Fold:
Amino acid sequence: MNSLDALFARCLLGIYWWMGLVPLPPVSQLLWLLLALVIRLIWVSYFMWMLWTGISYVLVDRSMSVSYLTGSILFIGYSMLGLLIQAQTIFKQRSYVRLEDYRIQLELQMSRLSSSHYGHKSGRLLFLLGTHLASDIIKSWANSKYSISPVHIVSMMQKWQLRFHFIQLMRQIMELNQRAIQLRHSLLRLAAGNDLWLPYKLSDFKHLQTLRLSYERIYECHELFNDCYGWGMLCLQLLCSFEFVANAYWFITEAYDSQRLYIFIFNGNTCFTIGSLVTALFWYGDASANNSRQIGCLIPKLVKPLGSKRYNDLVSEFLLQTLHQRFVVTAKDFFSLNLHLLSSMFGAVVTYLVILIQFMFAEKSAQAAARPK
Structure:
C-alpha cells in the first residue's frame, strides 16, 4: 500500500468513526467506548428529529401535492435508513470483528504469495467524493436561488453519512477484488510454469494449498461482508432507486412545463449523485463475480499427469470449491450486485418514467377537455 492509500485509509477510518459507521470499541477501551456511545446518541437524536419533522410535516399539511408527498416519504425513509445503519453496527458487532480478523488473516496469507497488485482505489474514491462535493455546492446554489427543497441544508449531514457509507462498502469490495486479482495472478504464474510432463514436487502441493486456502478466506470475507451490510444495502438500493425515479420524473416534467433552470440543475445533480454511487457499487460487485469465474477457469490448467494423486486430488477439490463458493455481493439474498441487475433496474426505471409521463399527458388532456370553450 502506497503512502496515499495509507493516508486516505486513515482519514476514512476517522470519518467512519465520527459518523458511527464502525462497530463500538471493546469494553476494555472504556473511554473510547463512552465517546463512541455519545457519538451514536447524537446521530440517533439527529435522525429521530428528522423522522419526527418529516412525519409532522405530512400530518400537518393535508393539501400537499404528490411531489411534496414523495419528497416527504424520501425524507422519512432516509431518516429510518440512518437509524438502521446505526443499529446495524451495534447488532452485527461480532460479524464486524470476524470480518476484520479474516481480512488481516487474508492479508498475511496473500503476503506469502510474493505478489502485489494494487489499483489506484484511493484516487478513484477521492475523485468520486470530489464530484459529489462539487455537485452539492451547485445544488445549494440552485436551492438558494429558488428554494426548491426546504430540507436541503438540514439533511446535508444525512446525505454525506450515506455517501461515506457507500464509500465504506465500495472500499471493502475493492480490497477483496484486489486480493482476488493477486490470487489470479499467482495462479497464472503457476499455470505458466506448469509443464505437464514435469515430475511432481512437494513445493507444488504446498503452494497450491496456500492458494486454495486464500480463495476460501476471500469467500468467507464476502459472506461476512454480506452478513454485516446486507440489510443496509437492501434498503439503500430501494430508496436510491425510488429517489432516482422521482427526480428523473421531476426533471422531465420541469422540461415540459416551466423550464426553470434552477430546478433543472437541482434535480439533475441529484440524479447524477445517486446514479454514480449506485453504478460504482454495482460495478465493483460485478467485478467480484468476474474474478471468481476467472479463477475457476484457471484451475484445470494446474493438473499434472505425472503428479501425485494427492496433488491432482487437491486440484479437483480446488475446482469444486470455485464452483460452489462464488464471490458474490448480495443484499440478504434478495439480489446480487452486478451489472446485469443494474441494466435491468435501468430498464425498469425507463418503463416507470414512460408510464408516469403517459399519465401526466392523459391528465393534462382530460383537464384541457374539461375546460369550457
Summary: Residues 93-370 form one domain. The chain has a mean pLDDT of 83.
